[in-house]
Design a protein that fits this description.
This protein has 470 residues and is an alpha+beta fold. 29% of the residues lie in helices and 21% in strands. The protein has helices spanning 16-22, 120-125, 134-156, 210-220, 257-277, 285-288, 291-299, 309-322, 339-350, 404-413, 418-429, 442-450; strands at 28-40, 45-50, 58-62, 76-85, 93-104, 160-161, 167-168, 204-205, 222-230, 243-252, 306-308, 354-357, 383-388, 392-400, 435-441. 4-amino-1,4-dioxobutan-2-aminium adenosine-5'-monophosphate binds at residues 172-173, 208, 210, 231, 233, 240-241, 244, 246, 248, 393-397, 437-439, 441, 443-444, 455. One of its GO terms (cellular component) is mitochondrion.
């Protein structure tokens, strides 16, 4: 006999944010959360309770002081009481507690998350607990909001959200940063017979979903994904992680690098507007101060400026000649733009986001479309980097070389074999449409929006060379 029970639509108790926005003051409520601080006086005790759903948490008031006795910083509790208007500063409502259930004890002498400001290094060392801080909670919620609004933008533009593989046979960017995947030895075979390659050929963790997105865009027209990428990035900068997330969009039937700029700009304006208008707890107080500037970028009536690499280098050279001590690296046509150059262009020349297009082919990846139309410099490719103040490069994109003969020539120049890239040539051979797209570094987006300088604080559990604690 199967027993049937009444349908329940949710088994989850309300979060503090839900409670604060929906309950009338007189209802008895239950609040689940972690204690952030406790203050005891003779006749009353106060505790700040947080469940990560609201920026401030909820002040709990204990007129029966003994009830607060078991509470320590960091412990988890279930409090029952009534929500009432708060006479105190900094909050509209408080919880007048009638009952306390201690769910998880926490020894305050050993708890690494103290109320006073903690150094970034200390929090990195206690990465498994750092989501208990206001800064990391806000960052995680900003990631959530940004990914939702990016998805909404692409959905509205007719894009299909697709899933691309993490394991791959190619190093899309050709920068030699792909991590190799090694299979564990099979216990059933003698070590001499263990296959070196699990997939029958060398396999890597993906550095970018682009090549797979191209295959899908050449059938579904407009596709995007938000996916982890892995790069054996040895330089320890505040813009690089070994594992990061990238929003990549790819679409067919586009012939102009300006289209790539327009879609990228549209998606970012949308995220900035959504984040500015949302009441979600995605900012710390300091970060909120950046909002007017971000809104100005989102609302400006004119498109974000676009400049060719050649024109950008000319501006940099003129500035370098006038102030020779500003840059560590002299700018010159044919050399990569250094991060100091990128920041100067965005911060001093454009005073805002700036697209730099048409880089020399030898500085970029093999798949980019050659600029060989009349009036264009054939030494360059149809590509773009988006530079923003405070950060430098936020995103990169290009038109992809859809002409089979040109692509084959580029593959020879870059030393890429048909064995790995035959399928990529096939995409051109069988009705390949002109197409293009871009990749937006998700942690860099969060860093730019929040003003948090290092991308290690823009991902919940970061990985970089020499560091993987959990
Ligand atoms: O410029 P990248 O290397 O471009 C690509 O990978 C293209 N295949 C993307 C495409 O067209 N679909 O990387 C794109 C962005 C960079 O602008 C940067 O924001 C971010 O990815 N990025 C990193 N972010 C954190 N840590 C790293 N090691 C990163 N490397 C790139």
């Amino acid at each position: 006999m199967i027993s049937r029970r009444a349908l329940t639509t949710s088994c989850l108790p309300p979060t503090i944010r839900q409670l604060l926005s929906s309950r009338t003051a007189s209802d008895p409520v239950q609040v689940n959360g972690w204690v952030k601080s406790v203050r005891r006086q003779k006749k009353v005790a106060f505790a700040m309770i947080s469940d990560g759903s609201s920026d401030k948490g909820l002040q709990a008031v204990f007129t029966k002081v003994d009830l607060a006795k078991p509470l320590t910083n960091g412990c988890s509790v279930r409090l029952t009481g009534k929500l009432a208007d708060s006479p105190g500063k900094g909050q509209d409502k408080e919880l007048q507690v009638d009952q306390v259930e201690l769910l998880g004890e926490c020894d305050p002498a050993e708890y690494p998350i103290q109320k006073q400001a903690l150094s970034v290094e200390h929090l990195r060392d206690h990465c498994h607990l750092r989501a208990r801080t206001d800064e990391i909670t806000a960052m995680i919620r900003l990631r959530d909001l940004a990914s939702r609004s990016l998805c909404r933008y692409f959905e509205d533009q007719g894009f299909c959200y697709v899933h691309t593989p993490i394991t791959t046979s190619s190093d899309c960017e050709g920068a030699g940063e792909a991590f190799r995947i090694a299979p564990p030895p099979s216990p059933d075979l003698p070590s001499s017979e263990n296959p070196a390659e699990f997939f029958g050929r060398p396999a890597y963790l993906t550095v970018s979903s682009q090549l797979h997105l191209e295959a899908l865009a050449n059938a579904i027209s407009r596709v995007y994904t938000l996916s982890p990428c892995f790069r054996a990035e040895r330089s320890q900068t505040n813009r690089h992680l070994a594992e990061f997330w990238m929003l990549e969009a790819e679409w067919a039937f586009t012939r102009d690098i300006d289209d790539v700029c327009t879609v990228l700009e549209g998606s970012l304006r949308h995220v900035l507007k959504q984040a500015g208008a949302s009441g979600e707890p995605v900012w710390t107080a300091g970060e909120r101060a950046r909002l007017p500037q971000l809104q100005a970028y989102a609302d400006s009536d004119t498109a974000w400026p676009r400049l060719t690499y050649a024109a950008a280098v000319a501006e940099l050279e003129a500035f370098h000649a006038a102030s020779p001590r500003t840059f560590d690296f002299a700018p010159a046509w044919g050399r990569p733009l250094q991060s100091e150059h990128e920041r100067w262009l965005a911060e001093h020349l454009a005073r805002g986001p700036l697209f730099v297009t048409d880089y020399p082919a030898h500085l970029k990846a093999f798949y980019m479309r050659q600029n060989d139309a009349p009036g264009r410099d054939p030494r360059t490719v149809a590509c773009v980097d988006l530079l923003v103040p405070g950060l430098g490069e936020l995103a990169g994109g290009s038109l992809r070389e859809e002409r089979e003969d040109r692509l084959r020539g580029a593959m020879v120049r870059f030393g890429l074999g048909e064995e790995e890239y035959g399928w990529y040539l096939d995409l051109r051979r069988y009705g390949g449409a002109p197409h293009g797209g871009f990749g937006l570094g998700f942690e860099r987006l969060i860093s730019w929006m929040s003003g948090v300088e290092n991308v290690r604080e823009c991902i919940p559990i970061p990985r970089w060379a020499g560091r993987m604690l959990l």
